[in-house]
Amino acid sequence: MPREEFTEEVIILKIGQLREIDCWVRFLTPSRGILTAFAFGGYRSKRRFPGCLDILNQVLFKVVSNPTGKYLYLQEGTLLQRFPGITRSLNRLGMAVNCLKFIEAAHLGEDDSRAAFYLILKALQILDSDVFVPAAFPLLFRTRITVEYGYYPDILNCSLCGKKVKADSGSNFIFILREGRICCGDCFPAASSTGIRLGASSLLGLESIISGLPGSWVDESVYKKLDKKTMQVMDRFVQYHLGLVWEAGHFRQV
Fold this sequence. Notes:
By secondary structure, this protein is α+β, with helices and mostly antiparallel strands. It folds into two domains: 5-82, CATH 2.40.50.140; 85-151 and 201-253, no CATH class. 31% of the residues lie in helices and 27% in strands. The longest helix is centred in the middle third of the chain and has 17 residues, at 90-106.
């Protein structure tokens, strides 16, 4: 079997030690999903991996398979970007690690890699900057990834009568988690599922999250539209569709 060889930019998710100077590296790629490869001599070689082998780093790796194709190893790496602003803040580091752990737990495969890769890259760039970042940033990220994986709710129109959500519409809407849609209060008795009542301003704020990139989440005016109930809806939405809940420092399948 011929050896597989490729070069690709990655984001490092996790690193573990094998022996004194060897390690394994788990990383996300835009075209091949999440991979794990060995870096023989990785802890010592400053020529092959100069400043590369740390979680959060964006790196260009040259990857080769062994002759039987059973495992991959790293020949060399070039650092593309690190995020020192994240590591200087325990709060932002915690947010970044939460996002990485969610990607590792939720990732669906190669076909969904590109969007996930560039969303996490943009999220790291935001967390590395000096802009305002809401405490709910990891939850917004999880919601956006869930949407990217195909669970895009229609929350701007009543699914039964077509009534549009407008800023002055009040609180007369119900979000139906199971079906990823909303009903107005007049139609809800005819709907077959239970739901959570949300105001129009919350729905408009939620739509800006699920349709936008992380750069739009740092607008305080958008964040202020997301009340406690909206946060609960996002958390339950992710749990329902991806089956993941944050517990004791990791994501658990439910």
